[in-house]
């Protein structure tokens, strides 16, 4: 039976079957080919889409905006200080109002519960553009990038080094497990993922033929990995933790030596971005040791970070088209 995602919200990958995730990746690949060929099918013609942001964004905001315009929809950006959201009006009330005006709602913010309330009350599909716990649209782009590089995802190994409790580690674990991949979370013990999530993901992996390893050992984590993944050490909203994270995550910085520790010449480097890889940003000037990856790796031949960033557009478009399109 064909996969039908019409009317569904997209809050976290745990809510989707392996087949549904694979269908979104296939649709994203198809939409990417069409975009490059200049074919516009306008499957969201005449629809209005709200883009609700509590936190800043470059890629996610631009991907939703351009995807809307490519497909004939109107995107309306609503920053956190632009509307009453959460200050003078409850999330549930805002959801019911936005649902009367808009055909779909993207939300990026802090508490995951907020996006759940939006989805419960809006009556239209709600898409998670990142919360403190999950970043599911990012993982679709990551998986598409790995698939473009290596082909079939089943059996591939991805090693994430850094904060093993953040939205990216959580989402990558689930995405890999759903697609029968081997995922390693490489982090100091105090940043290992929640045990309940590890148990749930391990169960999924056992079913799909994948695996999940949580380790503090760089050697164990990197061995044989096709993709090494990094994220910032302090996520948005964790600015007061920067000094502590630099102290505990310093040894997990991605270096050329770490890339070689995979034992493979074809390992690729991935990063959701934004990244501290040199001293040219305000924050990295202030905290030079905050760099989670060496510039040499970020700018080197194994890096696929900008292909990955481009794939945000095609995968986000796929989510909107699959849940709302003709
Ligand atoms: N990767 C990502 O979500 O980037 P933005 O924060 O720029 O949207
Ligand atoms: N973990 C990061 C991801 C950014 C795309 C954050 O939440 O800031």
Would you write up a description of this structure?
The chain is an alpha/beta fold and 326 residues long. It folds into two domains: 13-134 and 311-324, Aspartate/ornithine carbamoyltransferase (Rossmann fold); 138-309, Aspartate/ornithine carbamoyltransferase (Rossmann fold, 3-Layer(aba) Sandwich), CATH 3.40.50.1370. Helix content is 43%, strand content 13%. It is built from 13 helices and nine strands. The protein has helices spanning 18-36, 59-70, 91-101, 112-122, 136-150, 167-178, 195-208, 218-222, 242-249, 256-260, 282-286, 295-298, 305-324; strands spanning 48-53, 74-79, 104-108, 126-128, 157-161, 182-186, 211-215, 227-230, 268-271. Strands 7-6-5-8-9 form a five-stranded parallel sheet. A four-stranded parallel sheet has the order 2-1-3-4, sandwiched between helices. Strand 1, helix 2 (59-70) and strand 2 form a beta-alpha-beta unit. Helix 5 (136-150) packs across helix 6 (167-178). The radius of gyration is 19 Å and the shape is globular. The mean pLDDT is 97. The structure holds phosphoric acid mono(formamide)ester and norvaline.
Question: How many whole angstroms does the radius of gyration measure?
Answer: 19 Å
Total strand count, please?
A: 9
Largest sheet: 5 strands, parallel
Please give the order of strands in the largest beta sheet: 7-6-5-8-9
- Beta content comes to 5-15%
Q: Can you tell me the residue ranges where pLDDT is under 50 for at least 5 consecutive residues?
A: none
What number of structural domains do the residues give?
A: 2
Under CATH, the topology of the largest domain can be stated as Rossmann fold
- Element-level helix/strand string: HEHEHEHEHEHEHEHEHHEHHH
CATH class of the largest domain: Alpha Beta
Structural class: alpha/beta
Number of helices: 13
| Helix-residue proportion | 40-55%
**Which descriptor suits the 3D outline?**
globular
What hetero molecules are bound to the protein chains? phosphoric acid mono(formamide)ester, norvaline
């Amino acid at each position: 039976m064909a996969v039908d995602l019409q009317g569904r919200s997209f809050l976290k990958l745990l809510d989707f079957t392996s087949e549904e995730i694979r269908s979104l990746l296939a649709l994203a690949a198809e939409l990417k080919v069409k975009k490059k060929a200049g074919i516009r099918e306008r499957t969201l013609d005449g629809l209005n889409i709200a883009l609700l942001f509590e936190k800043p964004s470059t890629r996610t905001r631009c991907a939703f905006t351009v995807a809307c315009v490519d497909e004939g929809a109107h995107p309306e950006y609503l920053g956190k200080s632009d509307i009453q959201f959460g200050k003078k009006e409850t999330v549930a009330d805002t959801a019911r109002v936005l649902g009367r005006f808009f055909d779909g709602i993207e939300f990026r913010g802090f508490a995951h519960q907020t996006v759940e309330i939006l989805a419960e009350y809006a009556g239209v599909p709600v898409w998670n553009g990142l919360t403190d716990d999950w970043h599911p649209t990012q993982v679709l782009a990551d998986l598409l990038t790995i698939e473009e590089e290596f082909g079939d995802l089943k059996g591939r190994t991805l090693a994430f080094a850094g904060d093993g409790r953040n939205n990216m580690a959580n989402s990558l674990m689930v995405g890999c497990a759903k697609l029968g991949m081997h995922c390693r979370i490489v982090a100091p013990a105090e940043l290992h993922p929640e045990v309940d999530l590890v148990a749930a993901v391990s169960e999924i992996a056992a079913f799909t033929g994948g695996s999940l390893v949580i380790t503090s050992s760089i050697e164990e984590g990197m061995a044989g990995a096709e993709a090494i993944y990094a994220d910032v050490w302090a996520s948005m909203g964790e600015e007061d933790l920067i000094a502590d994270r630099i102290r505990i995550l310093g040894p997990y910085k991605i270096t050329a030596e770490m890339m070689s520790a995979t034992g493979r010449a074809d390992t690729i480097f991935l990063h959701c971005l934004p990244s501290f890889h040199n001293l040219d940003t305000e924050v990295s000037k202030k905290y030079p040791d905050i760099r989670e990856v060496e510039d040499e790796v970020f700018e080197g031949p194994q890096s696929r970070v900008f292909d990955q960033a481009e794939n945000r557009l095609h995968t986000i478009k796929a989510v909107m088209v699959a849940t709302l399109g003709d």
